[in-house]
Amino acid sequence: MTTYQLEIADNSAQLARRCAEQIGCWVDLALDQRDRAQIALSGGTTPAEAYRLLNQEHLPWDRVDVVLGDERWVPASDPASNARMLRDTLLRAGGPGAGASFHPVPTELPTPEASADAFEQHVRLLCPGDPPVFDLILLGLGDDGHTASLFPHTPATRETQRAVTVGAGKGMERITLTAPVLSAARQVILLVSGAAKRQALARLLDPQESPE
């Protein structure tokens, strides 16, 4: 049975601090049990401050593999790129977090499908298991109920054989981990901020709601 713990922060600064603490805690725990830790992180604006805080944490970053749970199919230099955001925050030069091994989605390939195929091969090499098992996955939640790039009522939400697939939402093609991979993680943190997402969170926690 899946269990969860709900924490409510008073403000965005407290939310970022608590998120950074939790990520650090679960990375330490994973490294106590295994030589390396594999974590998948969310894009978007909500976790960015948590990543800036983590950049200054003296964790064994040289033993941590970082991927993105989803990525927009744009060049790595594009302002919409989650990889660019991560390089500007968690992986920023000068902080301990820069020592982590980052494995970006190869968005330079000719098609989103080619990028998804290549990224899946890499994820399966990084993370043993079928589906691949991450030590930690950090997810956000859209006001429409999407997480990673699994948008409600799209084919990506129904993918069960692949670890990575092409998603589409808000007029942009994306590469995303699939639901089986998200469900297989040893630990999942769902980071939600803003009144507009309260209803989406309530639906997510309702056992009577459809998973799509």
How much helicity do the residues have?
A: 25-40%
Number of helices: 6
Order of helices and strands: HEHEEHEHEEEHEH
CATH-defined architecture = 3-Layer(aba) Sandwich
Query: Looking at CATH, which topology would you report?
Result: Rossmann fold
Give the structural class.
alpha/beta
The main pleated sheet reads as: 5 strands, parallel
What is the top-level CATH class? Alpha Beta
Distance between the termini: 19 Å
Strand content: 15-25%
Summarize this entry quickly:
With 212 residues, the chain is an alpha/beta fold. The protein has 6 helices and 8 strands.
Keywords:
212 residues, alpha/beta, Rossmann fold
Would you write up a description of this structure?
By secondary structure, the protein is an alpha/beta fold. The chain has one domain (12-205): Rossmann fold (3-Layer(aba) Sandwich). It has helices at 12-33, 48-55, 82-88, 112-126, 179-184, 198-205, and strands at residues 37-41, 64-68, 70-72, 101-102, 136-139, 164-169, 172-177, 188-190. It has a five-stranded parallel sheet with strand order 4-2-1-5-8, with helices on one face. The protein has a three-stranded antiparallel sheet with strand order 3-7-6. A hairpin with a 2-residue loop joins strand 6 (164-169) and strand 7. Helix 1 (12-33) crosses helix 2 (48-55).
